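pls design
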């Protein structure tokens, strides 16, 4: 374990209480346009202050622990933490899963985007949820009506402001369909677009910024590059607040945190050959692996991975992970997308494959597991 990386317990997802899937239902209540019951009948207990319009600003990669640790670099955002409890990402704590939970109001076990990569059932292929695959229809992969659509049906204006390149992507269609999409690449045009969209009453405007996450992956969250990017994000958020009318509420959230993984904490399955035994397909991501096993090999795979990793990761069967509630209630069609075995890393451990995922080996900051650094996210209202 690297210096400065605490060996602490996992954070369980706060589904239906204070998680990303609770945001849009709570905003709908705050706007006075409550959602009708959907595919998930369990109500959320999250309550937000009433307002005629809400702007939800999601900052990719800004964990609550990171914001607390580097408060000096983000004076505006860190000031909002006072008196406001953190929320949690879902499991795994990764972008595709989290963005879909926010847009649909569903847990991962319901919406089915269960990781950065996951098996396409009945095949030996993985779906990369960020790049997508043209052979996979996003409306079939995630067939449920989104919370954005449900809010719009209640008479609210719902707008997504995001980079132009994300318009019509598989993830956008799966997670955020039903909202008007406004492409905006620069900070100035993003804020202007949010200002225009949020002038409607009642309305929800969703704004996404992924630059902090990109910087953390490349340079690490302890780097000067990351701290400078955090300062820029803080300025953007403060400018956004100053531009919006006082009656419009700004809700700042994140999709996950991040942790730097030291070289000595990384395990390459292509160098530890027994970790390949019985594994037909390796999915997930470096901090949270889905292992799709050959027939009859599950028990042996669990035993081998546990013996090799020890206390560096929790290794369990799919059934055990489901029973722990990590994914919420898992719908039958989603079940085979989960690994037969799942591996959730502790401390700063990372499970790599330089053959299958060579790009991951070049990253410094990683996320996906259930440590507080990855799971706890800000959920602050101004």
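designed seq:
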């Amino acid at each position: 374990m690297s210096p400065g990386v605490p060996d602490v317990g996992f954070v369980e997802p706060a589904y239906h209480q204070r998680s990303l899937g609770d945001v849009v239902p709570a905003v709908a209540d705050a706007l006075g346009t409550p959602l009708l019951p959907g595919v998930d009948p369990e109500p959320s207990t999250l309550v937000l202050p009433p307002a005629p319009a809400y702007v939800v600003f999601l900052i990719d990669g800004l964990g609550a622990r990171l914001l607390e640790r580097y408060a000096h670099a983000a004076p505006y955002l860190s000031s909002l933490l006072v008196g406001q409890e953190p929320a949690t990402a879902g499991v795994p704590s990764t972008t595709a899963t989290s963005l879909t939970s926010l847009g649909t109001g569903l847990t991962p076990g319901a919406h089915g985007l269960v990781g950065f990569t996951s098996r396409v059932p009945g095949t030996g292929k993985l779906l990369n949820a960020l790049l997508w695959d043209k052979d996979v229809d996003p409306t079939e992969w995630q067939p449920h009506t989104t919370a954005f659509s449900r809010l719009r049906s209640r008479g609210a204006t719902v707008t997504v402001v995001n980079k132009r390149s994300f318009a019509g992507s598989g993830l956008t269609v799966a997670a955020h369909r039903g909202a008007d999409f406004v492409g905006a690449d620069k900070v100035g045009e993003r804020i202007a677009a949010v200002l225009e969209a949020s002038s409607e009453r009642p309305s929800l405007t969703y704004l996404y910024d992924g630059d902090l996450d990109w910087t953390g992956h490349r340079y690490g969250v302890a780097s000067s590059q990351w701290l400078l990017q955090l300062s820029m994000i803080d300025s953007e958020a403060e400018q956004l607040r100053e531009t919006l009318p006082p009656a419009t509420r700004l809700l700042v959230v994140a999709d996950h945190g991040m942790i730097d993984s030291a070289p000595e904490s990384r395990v390459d399955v292509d160098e530890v050959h027994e970790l390949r035994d019985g594994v037909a397909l390796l999915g997930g991501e470096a901090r949270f692996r889905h292992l799709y096993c050959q027939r009859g090999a599950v028990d042996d795979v669990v035993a081998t991975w546990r013996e090799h990793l020890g206390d560096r990761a929790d290794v369990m069967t799919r059934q055990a992970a489901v029973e722990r509630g990590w994914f919420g209630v898992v719908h039958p069609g989603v079940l085979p997308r989960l690994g037969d075995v799942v591996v959730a890393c502790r401390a700063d451990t990372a499970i790599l494959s330089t053959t299958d995922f060579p790009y991951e080996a070049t990253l410094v900051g990683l996320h996906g597991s259930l440590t507080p650094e990855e799971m706890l996210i800000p959920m602050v209202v101004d």
